[in-house]
Amino acid sequence: MTVKEIYTYLDSLSPFAIQEGWDNSGLLVGDFAQEITHVVLSIDIDEELIESIPENALLITHHPIIFGGLKQLQFNQYPAKIVAPMIRKNIANIAMHTNFDQTHLNDYVATEVLGYPIIAKEGFVAYLGVDAPYDTFAAKIKMALGLPHTRGVKCHEYIRTCALVTGSGASLMRNIEADCFLTGDIKYHDAMEASSLGLSMIDIGHYESERYFGEVLGGYLEKLGLSVIISPSKNPFTYL
User: Fold this and answer.
1) Dihedral of the alpha carbons of 38, 3, 64, 227, in degrees to the nearest 10
2) Helix pair 3-13, 213-222: axis angle to 10 deg
3) Contact present, 218 and 41 (Cβ < 8 Å)
4) Which residues fall within 8 angstroms of residue 136, CB to CB, at 6 or more apart?
5) How many CB atoms lie within 10 A of CB 213?
6) Residues 38, 228: contact at Cβ < 8 Å?
7) Which residue, of 77, 106, 119, 211, is most buried by count of CB atoms within 10 Å of its CB?
8) pTM of this prediction?
C-alpha cells in the first residue's frame, strides 16, 4: 500500500482540512508514491523510536515533528537531528493533530477513559454531564488518567457540567460554558484567570490525556488489513 492510499483513508476518517491554522498536520516527511511495509503509531518522534523502526515504514504521529518554517537543517539540533535518520531509513511521517482531536480523541477520552456522556460538542470542546462533588470528580479523573497528583482550580463545590479539551487548551477558557474545564498544561496565570472567571479547572496533563492516540487510530487502520505497531510513547516529564 502506498503513502497516498493511507493518507486518503486518514483524510476520510479525520479531514486534514479542519486542522487549526497554526497546526501542521499532513504528510511531513516522505513521498506519496512510497510503498509502505510497516505502519507505526506514536504521539511523538524521538531518536530511540526511529532506531527501532524498520526501513520503508510509515510513522503516523499525533504531534507534528515540524511546526514552523525551517530556516536551516542542522543535524545536531532538533528537529533535523530526528528527520535526518528518518530520511536515511526512508521513513515517512504523517501527523494527525488538531483534526484528530476534534473528530476522535476528545470523544474517546470523554466516553471510554473517563466514562462520562457527551452532552454537546463545539469544535475542540466536548461537554460532559457530571453531577458530582468537585472533590469526588477530581479523584475520579486522577484515577482514570493515572495522574501522579491532582492540580486544579476549585470554584465550585459541585460540578454539574464539565468541558474537556485534551492536550493544551487553557487558551479556550473564556469560551467555556460549564462549571469545570479539563485540559492539560495549565499555567499559573491560567489558574488566576480561571479563578477570576469563576471557572473550576483540573489539569489532566498533556501526555496523560493524549496517550490514547495510537489506541484509537490503530483500530481503524487494522480494518484496512495493515499490520500496525503502536509505540509506547514516553512522557518527557519525570515525576519525583
Assistant:
1) -30
2) 110
3) yes
4) none
5) 26
6) no
7) 106
8) 0.92
Convert the pLDDT of each residue in 82-123 to its tens digit. 999 999 999 999 999 999 999 999 999 999 999 999 999 998
b/e sequence 56-71, b meaning 16+ C-beta within 10 Å: ebbbbbbbbbeeeeee
Integer CA distances (angstroms), 59 to 44, 81, 94, 139, in order: 10, 16, 6, 35
Asked whether the beta carbons of 140 and 110 are under 8 A apart, the reply is no
Single-letter code of the amino acid located at 230: I
The cell numbers describing 48, all together, are 530511540
At position 104, the amino acid (one-letter code) is H
Residue 179 class from Cβ within 10 Å (0-12 exposed, 13-18 middle, 19+ buried)?
A: buried
